[in-house]
Give the backbone structure.
Amino acid sequence: MQWIVHPPTRLKGMATQKTSFGRDTGLQIRMLTTMFLLGLLYVAFVGVLFAAGASAVLMLVVVGALTLSQLFLSDKLAMASMGAKEVSPEEAPGLHAMIERLCIQADLPKPRIAVADTDVPNAFAMGRSQKSATVCATTGVMRRLSPAELEGVMAHELAHVKNRDVMIMTIASFFASVAAMIMQFAFFFGGDDDEGGAPVLLILAASFAVYAISFFLMLALSRYREFTADRGAALITGRPSALSSALMKISGAMESIPQRDLRAAEEMNAFFIVPARAKGALQALFATHPPMEQRIERLNQLEIELQASGRALAA
């Protein structure tokens, strides 16, 4: 099967020009703070487990195995959950050409490119480094967007790769996953209190606290990184309005997607460009993304700034 994507749009004077949007100090600080706090949290967590009498060997084996699998298999598991397949330049020539040009402008190595055959309109990026990244678009998003809009969406995903926040989000989500798994299997870490084993209630309470704190730290980072990726995409393409239009189209199209499909995709929300929310979901407190209105407002302001800068250069 050949995935058909329109040829990428070309902006005058930008065909091979590299775009530098600099480092977002706020994002860098938030990523470092998130990792530092999660590190402290897990040191305390391990201390609680040791104090409770949990098996050190078992913990090392379980956590070590999960760490390795998260670092080296997380992107493959995410792709599998979405039914995504890596595509060659022959299968998706337009998509490859578009991303190649965007990578030149963003000064990035070309990532692996995948397509998920689903009507849920979305895109995401995964990977532990810029050289091992994968960007994925769904058939639903490619079918609904114009070439310029799709270009803005893919530039957004490449901005995540450029900022390296994909790796931080992967690690942060791993911390929460470990705590969740320990909650599910707490009884395997010790026997009853009368037998001198680990107090199950103490382990459950510590695991829940770690999960909750990790979850909200991840949400705070996820919301901020979306603003940064929006800005990066707008500067890479030079068309904030195209990304703004794409975001509105994707958000509006979610209304027509069956609820079962949205629920199946929700576990990837932190990585999507627009979250797939089923009706009844708690959208404010547990939102992985900032409000769409704020994203559109910032892109509109950036459009005004870029136009003003263009007029000043022309003068």
About this structure: The first helix runs from residue 25 to 51. The two ends are 50 Å apart (CA to CA). Confidence is low (pLDDT under 50) at residues 1-16.
